[in-house]
TrEMBL record:
Residues 133-315 form the Guanylate kinase-like domain. The keyword Isomerase does not apply. PANTHER family: GUANYLATE KINASE (PTHR23117:SF13), GUANYLATE KINASE-RELATED (PTHR23117). It comes from Glycine soja (Wild soybean). GO terms for molecular function: ATP binding; GMP kinase activity. This is Guanylate kinase 1. Belongs to the guanylate kinase family.
């Protein structure tokens, strides 16, 4: 707190209004919300990601907040539009799927993090047009067949589903590969990363630490796929309480005897580990059936039948290959644009200077935002209004 700012207050006050770019060489923009002015942009130390500093007018000092989420990488310019609890950031000259970001300043997640850390917190979340398919959370006791069912689904629909690769402190089994089945890690490293906010959820299961990193879920979304998470009941509860909207499925064994048989026949655990897993299974099944966490309970008696039922509840029955996934719609934002806001509509006035200079409008509707940090902000809608040569003629169509 109170550290020397990369930019002086006077520079900011002279150089920029809300959302306009500063002209001091490094690409920065500002947004003022209440007493706080957020300076967002490239750090002067050559860091490649977009940094955030806050000038708190009520204290008269600069604050360097704790920044959660994956930071966007630098670009040729930024525009900022303050919304109620977050700031919309438009990146100029970036790839189409990397143009819309949100800097959360007072969302539920940010307030929760502030409470834990006792510091000022902001969080990044990438914006997604429309509603991407919800991730699928699969839980159930050890040996019930979660991994088998997930493999079958991914084999049948390889381009549709992507697996969230968890971190774990347990040792790899014979055929397991680091980075594919799990990120095998050390307890001290994982605990440090948990403190740094890199995990969407984590839990101690059968004596080891397991967790889903925000990055694991984002990598699947980046590949345009629907994310599958294989996590325990505690993890499912944490995800349920987070902003990640998902479908929650609990897999039950037909009987405890059959569960024990499957675990023993799998032959991957020592006797001691098998007994620990069986002891934990009772409580997991009870919680899975009785808690309000799960949307569906599937009994995995006959494997093929269970696979079919899983496909049915994911809307995939009858498909030989996966139905086309409605990929992210991309908006084309030219380098030159100006931004304004009317109610819940962000008006982006694009200027493209070709042979004949033309202008067009893109209207981003932010009235139905869903999700957010840690993870994507979904539910953005947009409308493009055709080229016109002067003024803001098209704007009448908005209000
Ligand atoms: N909370 C949480 N649980 C996980 C995660 N990854 C795996 N698990 C759960 O940890 C438990 C043990 O997993 P694993 O060691 O692979 O054994 P298995 O279930 O017998 O195959 C299972 O209930 C998994 O669903 C994670 O990232 N977070
Ligand atoms: N419906 C089923 N009937 C019989 N064996 C099964 C069934 N589903 C899974 N299995 C077997 O049970 C063992 C445990 O399955 P696995 O997918 O590893 O469970 P989990 O991931 O839930 O720990 C594996 O050897 C698998 O082949």
């Amino acid at each position: 707190m109170g550290e020397a700012p990369a930019l002086l207050v006077d520079d900011v006050q002279d150089g920029a209004l809300n959302g306009l770019e500063l002209k001091n060489g490094t690409c920065k923009t500002t947004a003022t919300v209440g007493d706080k002015m957020y300076v967002i942009g490239g750090a002067d130390d050559g860091t490649l990601s977009i940094e955030v500093q806050i000038f708190d007018g009520s204290l008269g000092e600069w604050v360097r907040p704790t920044v959660r989420g994956t930071k966007p990488v630098l670009c040729n310019g930024l525009s900022a539009v303050p919304l109620e609890d977050r700031i919309l950031i438009l990146k100029k000259g970036s790839k189409p799927d990397d143009r819309i970001w949100f800097l959360e300043i007072d969302t539920q997640y940010v307030r929760q993090q502030q409470k834990i850390l006792g510091t000022e917190v902001v969080a990044w979340s990438k914006g997604v047009i429309g509603n991407a398919e919800k991730p699928v959370v699969i839980s159930g006791p050890s040996g019930v067949g979660k991994g088998t069912l997930i493999s079958m689904l991914m084999k049948e629909f390889p381009s549709m589903f992507g697996f969230s690769v968890s971190h774990t402190t347990r040792a790899p089994r014979g055929i397991e590969k680091d980075g594919v089945h799990y990120h095998f890690t050390e307890k001290s490293i994982m605990e440090k990363e948990i403190k740094e906010g890199k995990f969407l959820e984590f839990a101690s299961v059968h004596g080891n630490l397991y967790g889903t990193s925000v990055e694991a879920v984002e990598l699947v979304a980046d590949a345009g796929k629907r994310c599958i998470l294989d996590i325990d009941v505690q993890g499912a509860r944490s995800v349920r309480a987070s902003t990640l909207e998902a479908i929650f499925i609990f897999i039950c064994p037909p009987s405890m005897e059959e569960l024990e048989k499957r675990l023993r026949d799998r032959g991957t655990e020592t006797e001691e580990q098998i007994l620990k897993r069986l002891r934990n299974a009772d409580a997991e099944i009870e919680q899975g059936k009785s808690s309000q966490i799960f949307d569906f309970i599937l009994y995995n008696d006959n494997l093929e039948e269970c696979h079919e039922r899983l496909k049915k509840l994911l809307g995939l029955d009858g498909f030989v290959t996966a139905p086309p996934i409605s990929g992210p719609i991309e908006i084309d934002l030219p380098m030159d644009h100006s931004v304004s806001k009317i109610d819940n509509k962000i008006i982006i006035n694009c200027i493209s200077s070709g042979e004949k200079e033309s202008k067009n409008l893109v209207i981003l509707d932010v009235s139905s935002l869903k999700g957010g940090a840690p993870g994507r902000t979904r539910g953005l809608n947009f409308q493009a209004i055709g080229s016109f040569s002067n003024g803001l003629n098209g704007i009448d169509q908005l209000s």
